[in-house]
Design a protein that fits this description.
The protein has 264 residues and is an alpha/beta fold. The protein has one domain (5-262): 3-Layer(aba) Sandwich (Rossmann fold). 42% of the residues lie in helices and 24% in strands. It has 10 helices and 10 strands. The strands form 2 sheets. The chain has a 6-stranded mixed beta sheet, with helices on both faces. It has a 4-stranded antiparallel beta sheet with strand order 2-1-4-5, covered by helices on one side. Helix 7 links the parallel strand 7 (169-173) and strand 8 (201-206). Helix 4 (105-117) crosses helix 5 (121-134). It starts with a strand and ends with a helix. The model has no long low-confidence stretch (mean pLDDT 90).
């Protein structure tokens, strides 16, 4: 099976030459689920931005990133604009900052649907409502501004926007970190169902091993910009090799044991 995403020797450097990501390589085939896990500052989100060609000013990517056969590193913005959405879409950690605060939710969901499917008028309105219904949002949300709905509803709206272009790859960058535990579980279940129904590939980024392991078939463990361990999720959880990975597994087990003790 040909790879949807191929990353070879990816490095990200600041303008002063300091390297933040060191020679990262991995691949992702259609329908696969890969998790990137590590502490804050490990390079997880930078990797996602580099894959999409969205690094902020002052940072440059080196190496090779092939997304649907197109080279991302060094590619002009116009070429990448045509690639984003169709080949890959992203759901960010905090939807309140990712969404436009001055635009109603329906209008924000309509944008990618219009670009992808060319719909207008009544057909576009129907498609927007269908997209919201797919992520379990009521019709009234289409008329609301981001600040008028809950955090969980905002994240569902962000997911609807990301899926509107029917991407082959969904990048989820800590999509539940800002949510409480109950809403987090609901959003994770929603993502799992939608990805399975559409047979999309998933790149799931997080710092919580229990969360990432619950959705990813393979894991890459990042520490200070380097991959210290990779492999099948069940193998890493059962027999972690690197000391940092072992610390992540031990912490997850301790938390699970504490929750079991607290259960009625």
């Amino acid at each position: 099976m040909s790879e949807l995403l191929s990353v070879e020797n990816l490095s990200v450097r600041r303008s002063d030459g300091h390297e933040l990501i060191h020679g990262l390589s991995f691949g992702l085939a259609p329908g696969e689920r890969l998790g990137l896990i590590g502490e804050s500052g490990s390079g997880k989100s930078l990797t996602a931005l580099a894959v999409l060609g969205l690094l902020p000013p002052g940072l440059t990517a080196h190496g090779s990133v092939l997304l649907s056969g197109t080279q991302v590193v060094g590619a002009p913005g116009r070429r990448l604009d045509r690639l984003r959405g169709r080949a890959a879409s992203v759901v960010f950690q905090e939807p309140l900052t990712a969404l436009d605060p001055l635009m109603r939710i329906g209008g924000q969901v309509a944008g990618p649907i219009r670009r992808r499917r060319g719909l207008r008028g009544a057909a576009l309105r129907s498609a927007v409502l269908a997209a919201l219904e797919e992520v379990a949002l009521p019709e009234r949300v289409a008329r609301a501004y981001p600040h008028e709905i809950s955090g969980g509803q905002r994240q569902r709206a962000a997911i609807a926007m990301a899926l509107a272009c029917e991407p082959a790859l969904l990048i989820a960058d800590e999509p539940t970190t800002a949510l409480d535990v109950t809403v987090q579980a609901e959003v994770l279940a929603l993502l799992d169902r939608l990805i399975a129904a559409r047979d999309m590939a998933l790149l799931f980024i997080g710092h919580d091993l229990a969360v990432v392991a619950g959705v990813a078939d393979r894991l890459i463990v990042l520490k200070e910009g380097s991959a210290v361990e990779s492999g099948r999720t069940r193998d890493i959880v059962r027999e972690p090799r690197h000391p940092y990975t072992r610390s992540l597994v031990d912490s997850a087990r301790e938390l699970e044991a504490e929750l079991d003790r607290m259960a009625p």
